[in-house]
């Protein structure tokens, strides 16, 4: 595969374009100079012919007076030319000399013409010197163009080399933002994109470290408790019921660890889902179908689950597994922390080219000062591994979406979990309806 070099491509195109421009100027200037010189020669020859014609008739003779022309490089004669009625110019070369010939009507009845031949060899030599000087200037200009193209190419390449140098020094343990003040303004979007990427990598690495440490801690604690209980139980003989109690506690601990391991596996599945092929999806129809399924989960607590939307369709290209993971986590948390006989709203609101999906419950709210998207962060004394929101945040990051949690601000206790999806949708706006 052929290697592409922006540096070489830029200075090559710059050299070619500038060289073509200079050559064009050369031909234009040379052509204009030659045309001007020969136009003056023709004008002079026409004036000479007209002067001969006037003088000849002023002295009342039918013979032209050639004595009025004193130039040494001009030959004048009277010739007969048949089948010619107008003035005629002709350029020709004889040996190493060049000439311009003029035939000017003297007496059309006799078909006689004044013939003036002018030697233009000196003019051609002058044009040749001009041409040689221009070629010399072109060669010198070409050298200057090459040097200039190389210099400006390196100048344009310098910011890229700076970025490359800084990026080559980074690793997962040393990630620093690129200072855009030292870069040309044209490279600011690239530097900002790299900074956004490094920030995401830092966040990912941070969460991964927390995840590994937390995983070890979460598994080590129940194992230590099980070991201690078993050791205490084995120190002396006990009743059968006491052994059964210890075994039941061990089984419960094993079940908790199984749930935790399932959460760890979900993280691996999510990373695989990030490579899922995006498909065209109507988010409104997708949410409507999912919410109908989620209503089955609310029957035990007699919770009303409503879907409110301000558009009928929202077509986007998205990975459905990732967006489902976010919505499912929001709804499950809302059901978990909502009291009996309460209401949960799923609101889909289209604004410009975004769709904001909010899950609003009537629970006790959250502590907004705590990063609940970090791994192993639990709300209150809730059961679980504390990885649900971490997985939702990871899915949102993979989709390039914005995710957040906040308390309700309408005077009602509860939490608002939202995600904002960016796309180029086709949305038919309608009145806010409930389904």
Order of helices and strands: HEEEEHHHEHEEHEEHEEE
CATH superfamily of the largest domain: Histidine kinase-like ATPase, C-terminal domain
CATH architecture of the largest domain: 2-Layer Sandwich
- As laid out across the biggest beta sheet, the strand order is 10-11-9-8-6-12
Radius of gyration (CA) equals 46 Å
What number of structural domains do the residues give?
3
Integer average pLDDT: 81
Strand content: 15-25%
Please summarize the sheet with the most strands.
Answer: 6 strands, mixed
Low-confidence stretches: 425-435
Quick one: how many beta strands? 12
Q: Please, could you describe this protein's structure?
A:
The protein has 435 residues and is of the alpha+beta class. It has 3 domains: 6-143, no CATH class; 189-273, Helix Hairpins; 279-434, Histidine kinase-like ATPase, C-terminal domain (Heat Shock Protein 90, 2-Layer Sandwich), CATH 3.30.565. The chain contains 7 helices and 12 strands. Helix 4 (240-273) packs parallel to helix 7 and helix 6 runs antiparallel to helix 7 (388-399). The longest helix has 53 residues, at 6-58. It is elongated and about 155 Å long. The model is unreliable at 425-435 (pLDDT under 50).
């Amino acid at each position: 595969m052929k290697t592409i070099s922006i540096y070489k491509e830029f200075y090559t195109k710059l050299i070619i374009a500038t060289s073509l421009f200079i050559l064009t100027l050369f031909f234009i200037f040379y052509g204009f100079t030659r045309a001007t010189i020969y136009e003056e020669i023709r004008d002079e020859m026409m004036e000479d012919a007209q002067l001969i014609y006037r003088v000849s008739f002023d002295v009342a003779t039918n013979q032209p007076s050639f004595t009025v022309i004193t130039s040494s490089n001009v030959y004048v004669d009277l010739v007969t030319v048949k089948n010619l009625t107008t003035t005629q110019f002709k350029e020709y070369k004889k040996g190493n000399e060049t000439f311009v010939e003029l035939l000017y009507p003297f007496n059309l009845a006799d078909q006689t013409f004044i013939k003036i031949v002018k030697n233009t060899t000196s003019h051609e030599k002058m044009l040749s010197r001009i041409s040689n000087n221009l070629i010399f200037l072109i060669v010198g200009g070409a050298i200057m163009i090459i040097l200039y193209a190389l210099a400006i190419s390196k100048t344009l390449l310098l910011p890229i080399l700076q970025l490359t140098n800084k990026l080559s020094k980074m690793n997962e343990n040393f990630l620093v933002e690129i200072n855009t003040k030292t870069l040309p303004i044209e490279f600011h979007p690239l530097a900002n994109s790299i900074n956004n990427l490094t920030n995401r990598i830092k966040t990912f690495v941070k969460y991964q470290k927390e995840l590994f440490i937390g995983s070890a801690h979460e598994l080590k604690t129940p194992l230590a408790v099980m070991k201690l209980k078993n050791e205490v139980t084995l120190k002396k003989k006990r009743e059968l019921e006491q052994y059964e109690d210890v075994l039941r506690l061990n089984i419960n601990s094993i079940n908790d660890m199984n749930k935790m391991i399932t959460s760890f596996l979900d993280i691996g599945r999510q990373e695989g889902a990030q490579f899922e092929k995006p498909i065209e999806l109507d988010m409104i129809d997708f949410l409507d179908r999912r919410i109908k399924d989620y209503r089955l989960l609310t029957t035990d607590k007699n919770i009303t689950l409503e879907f409110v939307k301000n558009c009928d369709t929202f077509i986007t290209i998205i990975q459905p597994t990732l967006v489902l993971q976010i919505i499912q986590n929001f709804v499950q948390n809302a059901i978990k922390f909502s009291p009996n006989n309460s209401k949960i709203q799923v609101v889909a609101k289209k604004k410009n080219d975004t769709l904001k999906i909010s899950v609003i419950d009537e629970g006790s709210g959250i502590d907004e000062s705590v990063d609940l998207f970090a791994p192993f962060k639990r709300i209150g004394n809730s059961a679980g591994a504390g990885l649900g929101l971490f997985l939702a945040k990871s899915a949102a990051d993979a989709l390039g979406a914005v995710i957040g949690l906040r308390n309700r601000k309408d005077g009602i206790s509860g939490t608002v979990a939202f995600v904002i999806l960016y796309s180029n949708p086709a949305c038919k706006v309608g009145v806010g309806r409930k389904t």
